[in-house]
Design brief:
Rossmann fold, 15 helices, five-stranded mixed sheet, 452 residues, RNA-binding, 18 strands, BirA Bifunctional Protein, domain 2, alpha+beta
Length: 452
RNA sequence: GCGACCGUAGCUCAGGGGUAGAGCACCUGGUUGUGGUCCAGGAUGUCGCGGGUUCAAAUCCCGUCGGUCGCCCCA
């Protein structure tokens, strides 16, 4: 790396977005925004940093080591770069108080920060799509936010063979766990154990299960429940039956199943009571979206948190929602071959590349023609190199994937230019005055052809 | 914060004490007005950075910064 001794490196866990990578980010954000809007959600945002207290009040002091926090020079107030958006959302909802018209459907695409060691799919700065439905307590709301997430993922080309929604429910899982012999006091520990079951050896699992008061049979049932994942096309009651429990234990999941079915989404979903999602603030449905093979971290995670707004000093507003980060999603799309041969294919294609052969007449026409075509809304480029070699200019036009090239040269004496379709390789002479209309028609045709 | 592995051309990587390498990309020419193919030629590096050992370090040692993977944690 030339002269790298004096070149600054980007901070650990951050990314530079060169044009192809920026195109990828915009590609994801467009899918997110379009899906949100199609489902009737409205975009919000908040500050990139908040008072440190906003994050410690809910999670305790332990979270501070995972935050980028700071004081103003000479100031006393502690701030932190936002590690998640939900506290900001809850703060906004709480501060609007009763003037907030409910139900409210909000989405955001914040930049988030965490001070942890980067790993695959986890960086120190990332972009996350957040969708929240406030003031709707029913399973239709849970199903609706899952639908929004899937709309975006399907827009990006992912199908039910690529991704799975793994759904659990705090109440249903707790019911099954208490039937295994887990006491109410040990419930949090039991959830934590369920969450870690794939990371720890079987003997440790049994040991820790025994520590929360389970007998041998109870340990076995706990393990069964935690690792039972079945297609959502099966009624949730079958899970309860498998463990010899009444189907009322999973009544909430039955209601959710009906709502998912109305939206045609059961095929994308699995019932998976091993999904826990931390322990923070979820109160009902909890779910994650994973790649079908399970090779990556969760693409998205969400659920119901009916007490959160109240926790931040607002009225009691039932709420549900999810977050989806750009990092894992990008990895999954790449792995599934849904980003084209190279990222630069996601860059906007120029409609027209103007080529001047270098004659005085051509040079005079170049910029005015570019200006008038741009006024018609076209993406117009010409070379910024000094060469007037037509071959080199055409090479530049094709390397940036221009749809048409227009060559300005000797023909201008007859008020004519050469218009070339760079995809088809065909070219025709066009009257200079007819060029804008001709191009508009050709571009409309090629756009229609691409949509088929 | 802890552990393991890695850092060589724009990119992907080989080389492992003695003159710095390949493929792709790039540039030039074949073609001074026709691209994506082909042929021929060409340029490119403080071998991440700093220090140490050595006659000699890309190579060995220490440190540091970055990357990857795991632990912790997960919003």
């Amino acid at each position: 790396m030339a002269g790298s001794s004096h070149i600054f490196q980007a901070p650990k866990g951050t990314r530079d977005f060169d044009p192809p990578n920026m195109a990828l980010r915009l590609h994801l954000e467009k899918a997110w925004r379009d899906a949100s809007i199609r489902h009737g959600f409205e975009q919000i945002d908040g500050p990139t940093f908040e008072h440190l207290d906003l994050y410690t009040v809910k999670s305790g002091e332990g979270i501070v080591s995972e935050l980028f926090s700071f004081k103003r020079e000479g100031g006393d107030t502690d701030y932190a770069l936002r590690p998640e958006f939900t506290p900001t959302l809850a703060r906004m909802a709480a501060s609007k108080g009763r003037s907030l018209s409910l139900p409210t459907r909000w989405f955001a695409m914040p930049d988030l920060f965490r001070a942890e060691r980067p790993q695959r799919g986890r960086l120190r700065e990332h972009r996350q799509w957040n969708v929240d439905l406030l003031g709707a307590p029913g399973p239709d709301a849970d199903a609706e936010v899952i639908a929004v997430a899937l709309t975006a993922l399907r827009t990006l080309g992912l199908s039910q063979s690529d991704i799975r929604v793994r759904i659990s429910h705090r109440g249903a899982a707790a019911g099954l766990l208490s039937a295994c012999g887990v006491s109410d006091d040990s419930m949090a520990d039991a959830f934590s154990l369920v969450d870690r079951r794939e990371k720890i050896p079987a003997d440790q699992f049994a040991e820790q299960a025994a520590a929360i008061g389970l007998d041998e049979a109870g340990v076995r049932r706990l393990d069964d429940i935690a690792s039972s994942r079945i297609a959502a096309t099966n009624a949730p009651g079958t899970i309860a039956e498998q463990h010899g429990l009444p189907s009322e234990t999973v009544a909430d999941l039955e209601a959710l199943a009906r709502e998912l079915e109305k939206r045609g989404l059961l095929e994308f979903c699995d019932w998976d009571l091993g999904i826990v999602r931390g322990l923070a603030y979820y109160t009902g449905t909890v779910w994650e979206i994973h790649d079908a093979a399970g090779d990556f971290r969760a693409i998205a995670g969400g659920g119901r948190y009916d007490e959160l707004v109240q926790l931040f000093g607002g009225p009691a507003i039932p709420a549900c929602g999810f977050g989806m980060g750009d990092v894992v999603l990008g990895l999954v799309l790449q792995e599934r071959g849904l980003l084209g041969d190279q990222l630069s294919d996601l860059l906007p294609r120029p409609d027209v590349f103007l080529v001047s052969s270098g004659t005085d007449d051509a040079e005079e026409h170049l910029v005015p023609l570019a200006t008038s075509l741009r006024e018609l809304g076209m993406h117009v480029r010409h070379t910024w190199k000094s060469t007037r070699n037509v071959g080199k200019q055409l090479k530049e036009a094709s390397s940036n994937r221009s749809r048409f090239a227009v060559i300005l040269g000797e023909e201008l004496a007859n008020n004519t230019v050469v218009a070339k379709n760079l995809d088809a390789g065909t070219q025709v002479d066009v009257e200079l005055g007819d060029l804008p209309i001709w191009l508009q028609r050709q571009l409309a045709e090629s756009e229609a052809a691409e949509l088929q």
